[in-house]
Amino acid sequence: MFPFSFEWVWDMGHMVFHGGLWYALSILGMGVTYCIIKAVYDTAKGQGGHHGHGQH
Amino acid sequence: MDSALIPKGVKRCPIGQFAVFIAVVGAVLLWGVVAMFLCYIKGLNQTNMNNAYGFALWIWADLAVIALGGGAFFTGLLRYIIGKDELKNIINYAVLIGFVCYSSALLILAIDVGQPLRAWFIFWHANVHSMLTEVAFCLTCYFGVLTIEYIPLILENRQLDKVPFCHHLSHNMHGIMAVFAATGAFLSFFHQGSLGGVTGVLFGRPFGYRTGIGIWPWTFFLYTWSAAACGPCFTIFITRITEAATRKKLVKDNVIDLLAKIAGWMLLTYIVAKIIDTWYWAAVTAPSMGLTLMDFYSNNPGSAYGLWILIAEVGICGVLPAIMLVSGSVRRSPALLFIAVTLAVIGACLNRWVMVLQTQAVPVLSFESWFTYFPSWQEIATTILPVAYGVILIALSYRYLPIFPQEQELNPIEGGK
Q1: pLDDT at B298
Q2: Does residue B257 lie within any of the structural domains?
Q3: How does DSSP classify residue A48?
Q4: CB proximity list for B8: less than 8 A, separation 6 or greater
Q5: Residue B70 belongs to a domain
Q6: Of A16, A34, A43, which has the smallest distance from its Cβ to B176's Cβ?
Q7: Are B165 and A55 in contact (CB < 8 Å)?
Q8: Is residue B391 in a domain?
């Protein structure tokens, strides 16, 4: 639900619940986007990554 | 035939043997899928749920696998935030087990909601006064975190790793994994807690109701605590079963010992808190509603709930494994360690059973008697379905992905190719 939805109310419940949801989704989205863009850049640049298994 | 896909320097069983294993487990999976489609096509009349049992076997299974899958968030927290570096040797497996647990929970929920096509309603038309809304938000997001943590493992497959983009993507995801792990720990704290809160806020059901802090009943904190304690125990439990099935040592003893020690102290502190909570509920909360402890454990013909279940949950599967796990000599004995983690896992499952099923069995009106429930075969089959799915995913991951970083060192093979 977004603030422009007709059900939205500017109360603590909506702000905390949906604020938390968007906060988490934003971090995950930005993190994955960063990884993909950097992977494209590294691939184009021909860099060799130096990570071994078990570095998770 | 598939040797090009198998990680370097490790040995796997012949493809034929593996295919037979997958086919056998696949048959069980198919049984569950048939039951699942029966529920989809014919509806929830395929279950034995009724007006007394709106939550039944599925919700118990959900809560149990979510608690046991807590090993992923807690091991991630220890590895990336607290800095327990040794745990890098088991974190992959913890993530895989967590992924299996959470995807299973979502699969069961997709059957349980009855109309899965409307599952998105909980996000768009959210009831912000419901603990279950918080659970849905955090559960979905945390499954996203687990998927993000599992993807680099897939990309490290021997053939995929040769593709430069996959190699770089995996490398970059590892690089910022701490951010994902921290987000996962944040989400897990809330959804594990809110699952406990669901029962704890039911003031109309004195068996489940608890007092607490603000809007959070004590069960909120106990659920998170027990997941952090029993989740790592489940990771060790599955690791030991995998080692027995593959007849190999896959993780060094010092890694298991560290995880078991932390889990032991978490379990010990949890069980002390649980005992205090139970005592306060029995001595203050329930009497304030006109009931005594024995009202919940006696005079219930037709249902099996007696004091035995409280003793089994808190004593045999709580205090006992906690004391065992904090003892170094017990942890060093593989058999005793396995018994301790098994008891802890059973304890978490029993706790969820009691809080979900027993809560609904207890009558709340003076003219009612105890409610009984036995799941239909469709409910049982769809609950076993995720187990079969989990076995298959773990088998495939073990065969084709470098899940155990220490496997090669612990199991050197001739030629080492």
Answers
A1: 85
A2: yes
A3: P
A4: B158, B408, B417
A5: yes
A6: A34
A7: no
A8: yes
> Which member of A17, A25, A53 has the closest CB to residue B156?
A53
Q: What is the pLDDT of residue B135?
A: 87
The C-alpha of B272 sits at a distance from chain A's nearest C-alpha, in angstroms, of 32
Per-residue pLDDT tens digits for B162-219: 999 999 999 999 999 999 999 999 899 888 999 999 999 999 999 999 999 988 999 9
Among candidates B44, B32, B152, B172, which has minimal Cα distance to B92? Answer: B152
Q: Within the 49-88 window of chain B, which residues sit less than 8 Å (CB to CB) from chain A?
A: 88
Long-range contacts of B223-226 (CB under 8 A, 24+ apart): B223/B67, B223/B192, B223/B193, B223/B195, B223/B196, B223/B197, B224/B188, B224/B189, B224/B192, B224/B193, B224/B196, B225/B266, B225/B269, B225/B270, B225/B273, B226/B67, B226/B270, B226/B274, B226/B348, B226/B351
Question: What is the model's pTM?
Answer: 0.94
**How many beta-carbon pairs under 8 angstroms link A with B?**
98
At B205, list the tokens.
């059901």
Nearest beta carbon to residue B153 from set A40, A51, A56: A56
Task: Look at A20 and B167 and tell me if their CB atoms are within 8 Å.
Answer: no
CATH number of the domain enclosing B196: 1.20.1630.10
Which residues make Cβ contacts (< 8 Å) with residue B317, sequence separation at least 6? B343, B344, B346, B347, B350
- What CA–CA distance (Å, rounded) separates B370 from B347? 24
The shortest C-alpha distance from B76 to chain A (Å) reads: 10
* A54·B145 Cβ contact <8 A: no
Place of tokens 């608690």: B67
Count of structural domains within chain B: 1
- Domain span including residue B259: 3-405
> Under an 8 A CB cutoff, do A1 and B126 touch?
yes
**Across the interface, which of A25, A36, A53 has its CB nearest the CB of B402?**
A53
Indicate whether B114 belongs to any domain.
Answer: yes
pLDDT in tens, B93-137: 999 999 999 999 999 998 988 788 888 898 899 998 888 888 889
- Contact (CB<8Å) B7/A53: yes
- ipTM of the modeled complex: 0.85
